[in-house]
Amino acid sequence: MAPNLLPSEKSPPLLPVKDIPGNYGTPFFSPIKDRLDYYYFKGHDAFFQSKINLYGSTVFRTNMPPGPFMASNPRVIAVLDANSFPVLFDVSKVEKKDVFTGTYMPTTKLTGGYRVCSYLDPSEPAHAKIKQLLFTLLASRKDAVIPAFRSAFADQLFAAVDSKLASSGRADFNAINDEISFDFLGEAYFGARPSKVGAASGLPGKATTWLSIQLAPLASNIVTKYLPWFIEDLLLHTFPIPSFVAKPGYKDLYAYFQSAGSAVFEAAGKLGLSREEACHNILFATSFNSYGGLKVFFPSLVKYLAASGIGLHARLAAEARAAVAAAGENGRLTLAALEKMELIKSVVYEVLRIDPPVQFQYAHAKKDFVIESHVAAFQVRKGEMLFGYQPFATRDPVVFGPNADKFVPDRFVGDGAKLLRYVWWSNGPETEDPTIGNKQCAGKNFVVLVARLLVAELFLYYDTFTAEAGTSALGAQVFITSVTKAKAKAKAAEDSSSK
Ligand code: HEM
Hints:
Layout: H1 7-10, E1 17-18, H2 29-41, H3 44-55, E2 59-63, E3 75-79, E4 94-95, H4 125-140, H5 145-168, E5 171-172, H6 173-190, H7 203-215, H8 229-237, H9 247-260, H10 262-271, H11 275-327, H12 335-339, H13 342-354, E6 360-365, E7 369-372, E8 377-380, E9 385-389, H14 390-393, H15 397-400, H16 444-461, E10 462-471, E11 476-485, H17 487-498
Parallel strand pairs: 1-8, 3-9
Antiparallel strand pairs: 2-3, 4-6, 5-11, 6-9, 7-8, 10-11
Helix pairs in contact: 2-3, 4-10, 5-6, 5-16, 6-11, 7-9, 7-11, 9-11, 11-13, 11-16, 13-16
Protoporphyrin IX containing FE binds at residues 96, 100, 117-118, 120, 127, 131, 134, 285, 289-290, 293-294, 297, 357-358, 361, 425-427, 439, 441-443, 446-447.
């Protein structure tokens, strides 16, 4: 399918410049009302959709949670269509300083006193140095990722799923993923699995506590099974959870990165970064960006795979097995084999499109400029905050057609790959790369690679599986309920158990 050109790509702006609809209401009270609508009375999608309907526009003014007393200024201009959303990537127009988590910023006491890379604007000198350090780290470990994924992730995952299914009839994918992905990241980035190098125990749990403190203002309906919603709102969205709660765990995490990251510190020195700043940054990139990312993304990927059923599973298994037979090594995955798996690649992009793991992007206008939705143009003034809810932008039917809100596994196969420039999960088009001059995710290629590895390994090992999916604090909660092992794997398991 040929991509539809967006109005802004066709010609110079011809649309009439209108006032941005919407208003911020009464200070203090309206931001709280918006917060309650968003978390409890309407929910995310209905909150935005009701405002789109009310104003007849995908660009409008609104308050964004958490609001009082967590965020001093909740006022944003929402950009919810595929034409206006990309302004958030244009660092010539917008500043991305301290907006990683949105209208509030967690205390730097949680990051050793440093503003880590994710909060830095490219105009700040430390941004280029730290992002370069992460690029150097990832490049130096590129050959380690596939073997680390197999030994530290896939093998552990299958053993855990098989044993949980045998003992209790269902396997909590999120719990297994949380436990093994931290080890996998340590192995992939530093060649040192936390659970095997004498690091303090329970690092994944400690990382989760530290993450939760930073993300609590964005979460909801976690304790509403036990407590009324207004108590939860007070606990999560009104005042920050004190940072001392995470302090002992952070110390243990820091100690692990200090010993595991020695090669990185040498590179940091050459870039003019202190060992300490580098260590807090690799801790954040691994424990927040990477571990937090996989906590959300992998369950979502497995959820969509499970829902697609045996027809898609058979195609994925056939593709993975044929590619490994043609370009694998001793029946194992290689990069060359992975490159042959076009459907698997498309499935990964489609999940990232339909359900971007990070749903929000924020930025401040650096100057006055005009933005365009599909039907109108709007004047933005210097200093105003722009906000994008990505699932609306990447499910825009103008770009993705009438099935934009459907999961279409082969959407990006063949000619469909032209639509990849509208896949924005990494805070930039999938067809572009992160650089030290932009704010696109430093781990973009790593994320796509490991997701393709997960799908390929799953269908090398299993013919099919079933799962039940619900929601968790951070996204999907998935329980695997049955698996059918690939014949060769089932036979190998039988042989080893009869020995
Ligand atoms: C599923 C996994 C991941 C998702 C969904 C994700 C998503 C994102 C998004 C949306 C941003 C931009 C946020 C903003 O400024 O508005 C970002 C930035 C960033 N991500 Fe990722 N990320 C993931 C994994 C990773 C990994 C594995 C790394 C490892 C290095 C990483 C490192 C970073 C860094 C350093 C930034 C800040 C970039 C900059 O300041 O220029 N992320 N990520």
